[in-house]
Structures are given as structure tokens and as C-alpha cells.
Amino acid sequence: MRTRPGARPGRFVLGLVVVAVPLALALLGPLFAGEPGPRAPSFTLGGGHRLGTDFVGRDVWQRILLGGRSVVLVALAATALAHLVALPLGLVSALTHRPWLEELLMRPLDVLLAVPSLLLILLVASAFPPGAVGLSLLVALVNIPDAGRIVRAAAAEAASRPAVEALRMQGETWWRMAVGYVGRSIARTLAADAGVRLTGVLYLVATAAFLGVGVAPDASDWAVMVDRNRTGLFVQPWAVVVPALLIVALTMGSNLLFDAVLEKPHRKRGNGRERGR
What we know:
The protein is an all-alpha fold and 277 residues long. The chain has helices spanning 9-32, 60-95, 99-113, 117-127, 132-159, 162-169, 174-185, 187-210, 222-228, 238-262, 269-276.
């Protein structure tokens, strides 16, 4: 990911630093976690444990190294899946001249949009307990309606421009119009939505983990750690504070990166005056 010319490098560097810590721990942590040692008393500090022990006496630092991969991979996979489905749905709905096809594609999304996301996840999970893959699919499913409507709205504005009509009159293919012109026109909107949506997806994944959906009650998972260790917050705070800060850093860093990449270049006032002469 590179900064655009004119974007503020400070914001990009800050976002990169903030997001690099949780990503590095999530992706590389399991390689350095090692084998679990003997359990100690619950919620203790010191005793050879860098961040103390958790509610069952396990080493918190080892749990941190092991617990990020599930949160990060599920969130990234769900966000990517939601956009992979929403993008073609939105483009087809915006560019088609058949009202019945647009209704067929968009009305089911409105039905899904009417059901609260977390409620739908809990209802499905109560009948079919999901694993990590199932949780990714569920979270992606509840995010498709929002993403699809955003893609359609942005694509409809781009499709109404004279350039698209000119391409159509020249006999250009639908792929060239949809991807070559409309897709490029809405790229900034899609990137901004991806940054915001990743935050919402992380919230859903963490909340589902709090409720025991998709993960075991004693799993090595940052969200599960926050939930299971909250009873000892005032005795051994690191078991709650560190995983919570890592989740917050991941969301904040992602949004800072997207903001920096999408920031419009600043034009110098002198250049604007010279052009106006």
C-alpha cells in the first residue's frame, strides 16, 4: 500500500505503525508461542509470566501470541467475501436496463438488511454451530446488504455520466464499461467503505466470540480473553487490557491507513491563482 502524491505521510506512517503491531502478533505470534508451561494460580503477576496469568492460570503473553490469528483472519476474510459478492451485485443492478433484474438482485438484500446483524448470526449459530470458516461466512452474509447498496449507489452515479453512454454507443463490452470505467470511478468509495466495514466486522467477530459463537469458551482468542478475564480486571488487568488494546489498534490503524491513501492531494494556492489568470 503506497501513499498518494500529496497525501500526508505522517498519517500514513502512524497508521502503518499502529496496525503493524497487532498484525505482526496475529500472523507471527504462533511461531514464537512455544509449548504451554505449567499452570499457575489464577490472576497473578510475576512468577516468570511477563503479563501475568489468566482466569485459569495460563500465561497471558502466550495467549496473546496465539490469540490474534483467529480474530484477524476471520475479520479480513469476512470483509473480503462481503465485497466480492456485493461488487458484482451492485454493478449489475446499477448498469442493467431491466427493472425486473434490479428488483431480483436488490430486494433480497433489503430483507437481510431488516434483520439485526448480531441477531441473525445468533439465530443461525443456534441451529448450526459454526467454526472459524462458518463465522466468516455468517459475518460476510450480514455485511453484503450494506456493501451492495453502497456499491449500487456509487455505481449508479458513475453509470449516468455521458462517458458511459459514449462507451455504450461505441459498442464497448459490458465488462469494459462496468470494470474499466465505473469500477475505477468508484474505487475510492469502495476503499473507504472497506476501512469502515473492517471496523464493523471486527466488532461483530469480537462480539460473537464474547458470546461463544465460532470459538471454544477457553480458546486462545483476543476477544475471548477480554470476556473470560474481565472478572479479574482490577486484580490482573493485563489479561484484559492488552488484547482489548490490540483489537482497538487494528481498527484504528486500518482506518488511518485508508484515510491516508484516500486523501486528496492538496493544491497550492499559488498554482490555483496562476491558473485563474
